[in-house]
Amino acid sequence: MLCLAAWLEPRYVRGMTLAQRERRALVETMRSAGPDAPTLCGEWTARDLAAHLVVRERRPDAAPGILLGPLSGYTAKVQARVVGTSFSTLLDQIYAGPPWWSPLRPIDAVANVTEMFVHHEDVRRAESGWQPRELATADADTLWALVRRMGWRSYRKAQTTVALATPDGRRAVVRSVSGSSVVTLTGPPAELLLHAFGRNEVRLETTGAPDEVRAVLDLDRSI
């Protein structure tokens, strides 16, 4: 059962950034779900995901391998050791945020918005019966700005022009292919961001030629 505290997380907590609020909600959802709960991160359980987050923020020697293939073997070995830490300790470390010596500490409010939001949904949406959360307007605007800026990476392999749109009429072309038709993905910013980060458990509307829509939905959207 999804954590009620995470579902009811206040839209705003005075003095806290969106990244910090999502971090707290993620920890509470993980705590409620338990270490063996599934996630949308392949075969990773909540414990595996927690270990990933701890390595990312507390093991600067291993964190580069999360993004750099040649270093991924070392990262996997470190994470395999970290995953043996008690689940409660892992959650406490995530909750505390990047330590003072972490390169992520000064940029937490910027660098960790997508990390915490997407992984929070990875745990939430792995549960049957999930529903999209209603986000505050300012939070939705933040996610829209992020997906507009980063979307080109996700859809760079598309063979057609790709546009993202929100129900209130905002629109951004994130992939432009000269002479091609357009595939438009429409939904709230949270759904668009999650899709751009490779998640398929989203609620979007699509317009465009059926075969081109399918090709876009089937893209490798890893960043």
Structural features, described:
This protein is an alpha+beta fold. It is about 45% helix and about 10% strand. The chain is built from 10 helices and 4 strands. The chain has helices at about 5, 20-35, 45-60, 70-80, 85-95, 110, 115-125, 135-155, 190-195, 210-215, and strands at about 160-165, 170-175, 180-185, 205. Strand 1 (about 160-165) and strand 2 form a beta hairpin. About 40% of the residues are buried. Mean pLDDT is about 90; it is low at about 1-15.
Descriptive key words:
4 strands; globular; disordered N terminus; four-stranded mixed β-sheet; alpha+beta; 223 residues
Helices, strands, pairings?
Layout: H1 4-7, H2 18-33, H3 46-58, H4 72-82, H5 87-96, H6 108-111, H7 113-124, H8 137-154, E1 161-165, E2 171-175, E3 182-186, H9 189-196, E4 205-207, H10 210-217
Helix content: 40-55%
- Individual helix count: 10
- Main sheet: strand order: 2-1-3-4
- The chain-level mean pLDDT equals 92
Q: Give the helix/strand class.
A: alpha+beta
Order of H and E elements: HHHHHHHHEEEHEH
Give the termini separation: 31 Å
What radius of gyration results from the CA coordinates? 18 Å
Tell me what portion of residues adopts beta-strand conformation.
5-15%
Main sheet characteristics: 4 strands, mixed
The global form is globular
